[in-house]
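Structure ticket #2291
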Amino acid sequence: MAAIMDGNHHQEQLLPSREFEFFRAGYDRRCEKPITTIFFDLDNTLIPTRKGDAKACSKIADILQNEYGLQRELASEISTTFLTSYRRCPDNPDILLAQWRTQLWEDALPSGRKHLAAQLYPRWVEYRTRYLAPSAEIVSMLQTLRLQYLLGVVTNGPSASQWEKIDRLALGRYFDCILVSSDLPWAKPDRNIFYAACHYLGVQPEECAMIGDKLETDIQGGLESKLAATIWLPLPKDLRLMHDKSLADLDHQIQPDYIVENVLDLPAVLPLTTSFCQQRCRPVVERRGSNSYIPKTTRNREASYNRFLPDVPDLYSSSSNSCDSSGTLESH
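Resolution: structure written out below.
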């Protein structure tokens, strides 16, 4: 599948006509630059966060109606209130994650029903985890790509909230590097967060690609970092929020190198061949009798969801190669 397919009616609906014609004119091609590393955004790129959150809240509305006898309109209003508050502030660093989200459910429930919050929260988490899980097709794609590329996650968001998703979905097994902005002094589009990922993996920005759904963070950051390729995955209209930016909103000031309709289309814009020293930059350790890979992350793995600022230098001038002579990554 090409980056943009002629005659794709669904994609014409997905993008305003001005944007669609812009991309049809010059973006139906593969990247010809050598790429060794692919950085993924997390939410709404690798995992369907908005869709999963909404589906989980809909399930809670069903529970409120069917198990607790609330009218459907009230049950839906409660779930919508929670979802709105949660999207506005998914994490409060001053209290535990579960405590904060239980409080949001309690605030959404009417007087006389607030005690249900403690019962609803764990069920919401269960449904949410199920709906956020990447599809079997995405997992297969990641496993295939990892045979040829180094893979990283570069995500903005609160540390506890982002690491909860990464851990519950066991995403660490597919990646060589995972960076969460709240663990660092920078967030996308600051180019230093991209340089930090390059630093961890011992690669240069010009050999990396970035795929994400936000023009103003994923694409702008990738462009300012001078990555080899930026790949935009615009959200369908039914999942967009008021603050989401389009090319028209930005007056085409941020122009991704490629656009895909689905993250599974990513291989279609990658070079047909690539060559790099994969094993030199991927640290191998013995675990339970077999070779396993330990990803470089911004989290202190000794503590649960604890902010940790690694020793990453200011990298505006260049990204340094962090592989030592033995072929393993230096610790930070």
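Closing remark: The longest strand covers residues 150-155.
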